[in-house]
Design goal:
Length: 158
């Protein structure tokens, strides 16, 4: 396993704790107020990451285990409008996120160099290796922490 892969796995491993540290002490108002026009609330961002990383874990496993696996798309903006995605209660979401990441890390740490070259595809025709997939999702989590911080910086009293 290369250093780069190990570093990206570590980002996935530590992500739930890093995200929780950003939102732990926020008020219900901070979690549910759309401080930026056209952007999700903090709660929607947190719940989205759990939805997205659950889908990512399943896609990763399918790409590893099935030939020519194609990821089923979903509309993340529609998913972000459901009651569970708008709730200020983060408890179940962090249980889910911690569990997904623990399983995902255990799986990734077990892979051989050859297995990291397995590929999967998207309905757009794009094909990626598991190494590329790992890079996308390590960055994805960090991008949402940045988005949450930008949202909170837009609070009128910030």
């Amino acid at each position: 396993m290369s250093n780069s892969i190990e570093e990206q796995i570590e980002r996935i491993r530590t992500y739930p704790a890093r995200l929780e540290a950003v939102v732990r002490d926020l008020s219900e108002q901070d979690l549910t107020t759309p401080y930026l026009d056209g952007e999700w609330t903090v709660a929607q961002n947190v719940h989205h990451v759990a939805d997205s990383h659950l889908n990512a874990y399943m896609r990763f496993k399918l790409f590893l285990l099935e030939e020519n696996s194609v990821a089923k798309p979903y509309d993340q903006d529609v998913w972000a409008t459901t009651a569970d995605s708008m709730s200020p209660d983060m408890s179940a979401t962090f249980i889910l996120l911690n569990g997904i990441h623990a399983r995902w890390v255990a799986l990734m740490e077990s892979l051989s160099d050859e297995e990291w070259t397995h590929t999967g595809g998207y309905t757009s025709g794009r094909v990626i290796t598991l190494v590329q997939f790992l890079d996308v999702y390590a960055k994805h989590g960090d991008d949402h922490i940045d988005q949450i911080q930008r949202t909170l910086a837009a609070k009128p009293d910030a």
